[in-house]
Write a structure and sequence with these properties.
Keywords: Cell membrane, Membrane, Transmembrane, Transmembrane helix
Family: Belongs to the polysaccharide synthase family.
Number of helices: 17
InterPro entries: Poly_Biosynth_Transport
Subcellular location: Cell membrane
Oligomer: single chain
Strand content: under 5%
Helix content: over 70%
Membrane topology: Multi-pass membrane protein
Radius of gyration: 22 Å
Structural class: mainly alpha
Largest sheet: none
Length: 438
């Protein structure tokens, strides 16, 4: 008779193996691209850490956080709905989707330009206006590649998606290092972010023609409503998720100043850079993976096995980083960071990454099952709770902020993962039972 712990171990290994089989190719291309990209960014960040002061990191954090918050609302405004459609619907909606993409990106550009002056005035730093304005111009480029990227995601061409991400990261890091060495200061971080969008567009468009559109006459308002009806809740969910992930930047900058924000931004990126890259790759592949399913049992198996697989990848990486933190940070990035709280902040933020895949999995499961409103409410509630906790922690120290983030995620994300699973599969089981009774 097998011992209980042996049965548990065997079941866990079967889940992990199943997850690698189901998401294997997608995760391999996206994960390897993200991992390689993060290594490249790591090398670039070594140069930046030795050349730039914490204040520069703080300024970059303000500009990039603003861009990320606004950009998040545009990324899946049409793609989330298009990926779920059959071939005929997909082709018919492409023209209207293109109009929506341009409209939303123009609005995003305008919002960022309008925000530049109030933000610069709030931080008493007028030098922030021009970098924010330059980053806003990125939104005028994105629609040129959005439909092509959607086609690659819909067709599960994760090799191309991963290649686009990798080349973006490689060129971004190379340009950043070159410009930093040339003395461009904050522009060494900002300018490459805009220029590499051309790389992303070129790779997604290469040998990837759009289907012949049935609605070539232009925009169809009924289709726009269909796209926005599904896309707006998804975009709002993504926005609240991004806000949750960046709320610590906003509050640290507000309560503790730009220099403290620079230390926190530095520690956050070197501690969670690799693991968050893997988790984002997982989320991208997971949504497409879940949208192609046959039965409730098949969906449940995909969900559990995929979580087991991503945890098997990320946990060892995070634990290794945590164990080596005291040696790793000063050796690689320089002794000047020893006079700050960077190492301790690094450690607690790194450990917070252990449960972050659970939140990503729960979010994609809800979206793939049309429960975008539920996902939005969960992310909004979690963001509010996290903001309160971090706001209180900011009254003490950066280390307290990092500890609060870690504890908050350890408590909430497993609960959200369990709740989402029960929400989706309880509903599906009830519908199945009703169908069988009829």
């Amino acid at each position: 008779m097998k011992k209980p712990h042996n049965r548990f171990l065997n079941k866990t290994m079967m889940l992990i193996q199943s997850g690698f089989t189901g998401l294997g190719k997608s995760m391999m291309w996206l994960g390897s691209a993200q991992f390689s990209g993060r290594i490249i960014r790591l090398l670039s960040s070594i140069v930046l850490a030795r050349l730039l002061m914490p204040e520069m990191f703080g300024q970059a954090a303000i500009v990039l956080t603003l861009f990320e918050l606004i950009c998040t609302a545009t990324r899946r405004i049409t793609s989330a709905a298009l990926i779920r459609m059959d071939d005929e619907q997909f082709t018919d909606h492409l023209s209207s989707a293109n109009w929506v993409n341009w409209g939303v990106c123009l609005l995003a550009c305008l919002m960022m330009l309008l925000a530049s002056y109030p933000i610069a005035r709030y931080y008493h730093d007028t030098s922030l206006i021009l970098p924010i304005a330059v980053m806003a111009m990125s939104f005028l480029l994105l629609p040129m590649g959005m439909q092509y990227a959607t086609i690659n995601l819909r067709n599960n061409k994760m090799r191309i998606v991963g290649r686009a991400n990798l080349w973006q990261t490689f060129i971004d890091a190379a340009l950043t290092a070159i410009l930093a060495l040339a003395g461009f200061e904050i522009w060494a971080i900002i300018l490459p972010k805009v220029l590499v969008i051309f790389v992303w567009i070129a790779i997604h468009r290469y040998h990837n023609p759009l289907p012949k559109m049935q609605s070539e006459t232009g925009i169809k308002y009924a289709q726009v409503i269909t796209l926005l009806h599904f896309g707006i809740p998804v975009s709002l969910s993504d926005l609240t998720n991004t806000l949750r992930q960046n709320i610590d930047y906003l509050l640290v900058g507000y309560f503790m100043g730009v220099e403290a924000l620079g230390v926190y931004f530095f520690a956050y990126n070197i501690s969670l850079g690799i693991s968050l890259g893997l988790i984002q790759s997982f989320g991208t592949a997971f949504y497409s993976h879940l949208c192609h399913r046959n039965t409730v049992e098949d969906l449940s198996a995909k969900y559990l096995s995929s979580i087991a697989a991503i945890m098997a990848i990320t946990v060892p990486v995070i634990l290794m980083q945590s164990v080596l933190s005291d040696w790793y940070v000063p050796l690689v990035y320089g002794d000047k960071w020893l006079s700050t709280d960077a190492i301790n902040v690094f450690l607690f933020l790194c450990l917070s990454g252990l449960v972050r895949p659970l939140g990503e999995a729960a979010s994609q499961l809800l979206l793939a099952n049309g429960l975008s409103q539920t996902n939005l409410k969960i992310n909004l509630l979690l963001t509010i709770c996290l903001a309160v906790v971090i706001g209180i922690a900011c009254q003490f120290s950066l280390i307290t902020v990092a500890q609060s983030v870690m504890v908050s995620y350890f408590i909430t994300l497993p609960l959200i993962c369990i709740y989402s699973y029960q929400k989706v599969f309880k509903n599906n089981q009830q519908l199945t039972s009703i169908g069988e009774s009829l």
